[in-house]
Amino acid sequence: MKSSAAKKPELAQKLVYSFGDGSAEGSAKMKNELGGKGANLADMCQLGLPVPPGFTVTTDVCVAYYDAGKHFPEALAAQVEEGVAKIEAAVGRRFGDASNPLLVSVRSGARASMPGMMDTILNLGLNDATVEGLAAKTGNARFAYDSYRRFIQMYADVVLGVDHDHFEDLLDLMKNEREVALDTDLTEADLKELVAQYKEKVQQALGTPFPQDVHEQLWGAIRAVFDSWMNPRAITYRNLHDIPAEWGTAVNVQSMVFGNMGNDCATGVAFTRNPSTGEKMFYGEFLVNAQGEDVVAGIRTPQPLTIAGKAEGGDLPSMEEVMPDVFAELVAIYKKMEAHYRDMQDIEFTVENRKLWMLQTRNGKRTAKASMKIAVDMVAEKLITKEEALLRIDPLALDQLLHPTLDPNAKKQVIAKGLPASPGAASGKVVFTAEDAESANARNEKVILVRIETSPEDIHGMHAARGILTARGGMTSHAAVVARGMGKCCVSGAGDIRINYARKEFAAGGLTVREGEIITLNGSTGEVMLGEVATVQPNLSGDFATIMGWADEVRTLKVRTNAETPLDAKTAREFGAEGIGLCRTEHMFFEADRITAVREMIIAETLKAREAALAKLLPVQRADFVEIFRIMDGLPVTIRLLDPPLHEFLPHNEAEMQEVADGAGVPIDAVKYRAAQLHEANPMLGHRGCRLGITYPEIYAMQARALFEAAKQVAAEGKTVLPEIMIPLVMTRKELQLMKAVVDAQAKEAGFTAPYQVGTMIELPRAALRAGEIAEHAEFFSFGTNDLTQTTLGISRDDAASFIEDYKRKGVIESDPFVTLDQDGVGELIRLAAERGRATRAGIKLGICGEHGGDPASIGFCQRVGLSYVSCSPYRVPIARLAAAQAALRDPQ
Ligand code: PEP
Ligand code: MG
After folding, report:
1. Reduced to 3 states, what is the DSSP secondary structure of residue 460?
2. Mind listing the pLDDT tens digit for each residue in 390-428?
3. DSSP 707-733
């Protein structure tokens, strides 16, 4: 939960930090003030890399801007002016100078990277006079007017609010008239005319001319970047990634370099290793004679950087072939950067007349598979330690690796092929808009979002979809980058599909696929297949096994699983579970072969009738336990006696009621009467848990008997059984004392002589508070944080779903307390119970079996309070193993 708001610190005096020419006022350490991009630009300058000079306006200014109702702090103007003057001095051009103009880019840059979420403006500083100066100075009037028309479009769209479609339409019209296919085919005269048309469009739309004052342009752009911090897609992205709105964004103003001045110019994006597979190869794309956003926007199909990279990207010539000398320089620089940052870098560069400029670097986003491989490789290369490797991998991202992939032997009908942009496999119904994806997801339908290309507006639909298919765009297109970040399968640039949004269909491989039809994507090969394709279990050897091995070496918390079926128990054991921390026996009651006997037991009016029904249940329950004990040979198994209120098991329709009545030899009205009698107004707080055991001790006796007989049988097979019997929902010492007596009596009667333990769940605040006396009878505590969260916060888990998101948005809470332990409330009770329990019984075993046992942040908390194990669902076990290792590295016990 959120602590009370701290007082805002005074705004710092220094609001602008310059960089360039091998030095910088800021540094890599100043991410909070300069944002990720600004800090890295400063750092790259200090590394001696070729970075166009510029300055960063701090994130503090953004915060102050919003605090003051969107007004700039007074001190800012002079500092920005000084920043501009320094750029002018470094490059020998002047801002607004008609004969030798300085042009700048204006970009956002928050502490955490938010790719494509905020606004950028390029070529700022052009007007009717400076465009002529640029033409004269570069001797390239075509280039100058091309830059100007791009600037008008971008500035009008981002700052003035004139939609960029208007300009795209004019551009298309011009190309049609001139009968040319590419923007680059337009002549200087065409572009001049286009500039005139663009300015006219702005005048029409706003009733005022396009701003000619370059300082007005600059301030408009800075304001627009700050404003974009609060645009809906940035807000959505922040909510998805838990980035606080209070951080604000920095603004980077930087001297322009041009990748679009001719064929000895280019712009590109590179990863120092393959972000999909992690393979150690320089990897990326570039476009000759193009500017910045052209590569990521996915409008032209980019060319590969390396000859090796051509294998995937078709037959376009690589940078290695087209510009070998610049390429060699780029290779030397990327190696230097990787060694410096000791992590895979995602870099942007521009080549202006064969001169290489580095525009940006950051730690590259990668798939879980790539993050494993890169970590393992970097340890082998002695670039990082094992501990650093473990701390670098996001435990939750492992989820991507634990799920099935397409069966290579399954029959499949490939209808198109695109780029393998983000690996994994996904099947689902085709939808064509982000809105449709979201509403289908709300109906629990699996969908594949199919778009010509995606843009940041689609982000919510991408989140809702199982996979993403685009017709245009490369490996670094918006769709590819965002999908990889989300761990979602994506095939991009499938050029042979023809999408018709109006008819909600696409054509591929001679077929028409309509909205609602099922397709399958393979993000690792780029294949698009008709229908649903069979899958196989993942292979958890190789780098995955290596990382898990390292994790097991350092962690001190044990990891168990919550499992009640043999399949779950087996899966969990394969994933490395070190025992069962919670076997919920009621799940066994629902099986078809016994539910009738369970119901007879419930409607029984007399002890005799109840015992008759329980006698039918005993052998089936024993058989369940036998299987589980066999699978968990040598590992502890915590079995929880019956927990839910009885009405949950009752029949819902006449036919089922009749069946129960017949089995018990009573009229159907008796069943109905009993059902009405058992109805509870608030079942979560009702007659359940050990309260049932107190009322009907014979139920717990049957369960205990079944489990001891099973344990005895499996032990006789030569296996090691370590039963731990857990009593749920205890709130008083006496409850546990009575139930422990029932269990112990059954152990004796069953003749089970090996060691076993009896303990309790701590899932009520009273139990936590009275843990000292409860520990007199408990050999272990297992924190049932599902119920403990509900009972501590007074929020039911089911009802929370409807308002938790709103609570997060309004800042009432920082995270969902049913996902991440509420450390100030529920956590406080756990700390106290652990302390009081230990005071009574030193060395009492403490674990957690609520959902939080699989949440990395909560696992960190468990480490700090010194629990001995966490227990989570089978597919969370590897996540918990890694999270426990990270917890041990951060907080050694
Ligand atoms: C709990 O309350 O945390 C728990 C594990 O029990 P259940 O979810 O079955 O109520
Ligand atoms: Mg519970």
Report:
1. helix
2. 999 999 888 878 877 888 788 899 999 998 888 788 999
3. HHHHHHHHHHTT---EEEEEE-S--SH
Task: Categorize the per-residue pLDDT at 711 as very low, low, confident or very high, splitting at 50, 70 and 90.
Answer: very high
CB 532 within 8 Å of CB 844: no
Q: Which atom from ligand 1 is nearest to the alpha carbon of 785?
A: 3
Å from CA of 786 to ligand 2 middle: 6
Ligand nearest to the backbone CA of 797:
1
User: pLDDT digits over 796-837, tens only?
Assistant: 887 887 788 888 878 898 888 999 999 999 999 999 999 999
Angstrom distance (rounded) from CA 405 to CA 527: 13
- pLDDT value of residue 815: 87
Count CB neighbours of 7 within 10 A.
5
pLDDT per residue over 274-313, tens digit each? 998 899 999 999 999 887 666 665 567 789 999 988 876 5
Buried (b) or exposed (e) across 214-249, using 16+ Cβ within 10 A? beebbbbbbbbbbbbbbbebbebbbeeeebeeebbb
Pairing assessment for the beta strands 518-522 and 527-530 based on DSSP bridges: antiparallel
The structure tokens listed for 627 are: 């299987």
Is the CB of 643 within 6 Å of ligand 1?
yes
Q: How far apart are CA 799 and CA 818, in angstroms?
A: 12
Helical H runs in 365-433?
A: 368-380, 386-392
| 472: Cα separation from own chain's centroid | 25
Q: What is the pLDDT of residue 393?
A: 94
588 C-alpha to center of ligand 2: Å? 16
Three-class secondary structure of residue 359 per DSSP: strand
Rg of the chain taking only CA atoms, in angstroms:
32
- Cα of 684 vs centre of ligand 2, distance in Å, is 9
Q: Which atom of ligand 1 is nearest to the CA of 582?
A: 5
Q: Which two tokens stand for residue 866?
A: 């010194």
Longest dimension (CA), the chain: 104
Ordered DSSP codes for 190-229: HHHHHHHHHHHHHHHHHSSPPP--HHHHHHHHHHHHHHHT
Q: Are 73 and 61 in contact (CB under 8 A)?
A: yes
Query: Which run of H or E residues covers position 511?
Result: strand 511-514
Give pLDDT tens digits for 237-278.
Answer: 888 788 888 999 999 999 999 898 889 999 999 999 999 889
Residues contacting 248, CB < 8 A, separation 6+: 59, 60, 61, 62, 63, 65, 66, 110, 226, 229
| Separation in Å, CA 316 to CA 40, 268, 293, 430, 470 | 32, 15, 20, 31, 20
What is the pLDDT averaged over residues 853-865? 96
Give the pLDDT confidence of 102-125 residue by residue, as tens digits: 999 999 999 987 877 778 899 999
Give me the residue label for tokens 């490797």.
Answer: 389
* Cβ atoms 385, 379 nearer than 8 A: yes
Tell me the C-alpha distance between 777 and 779, whole Å: 7
Taking the C-alpha atoms of 771, 776, 780 and 786 in order, what is their torsion angle to the nearest 10 degrees? Answer: -30
Residue 107 has what pLDDT? Answer: 93
What whole-number distance in Å separates Cα of residue 652 and Cα of residue 646?
13
**Protein residue with its CA nearest to atom 3 in ligand 1:** 784
Please tell me the number of the ligand nearest to residue 830's CA. 1
Sign of CA dihedral 203, 205, 208, 212: negative
634: exposed, middle or buried (C-beta count within 10 Å: 0-12, 13-18, 19+)?
A: exposed
How many residues comprise the chain?
893
CA 639 to ligand 1 centroid distance, Å: 13
- Put simply, whether the predicted model's pTM sits higher than 0.90 gets the answer no
Nearest CA to ligand 1 atom 6: 784
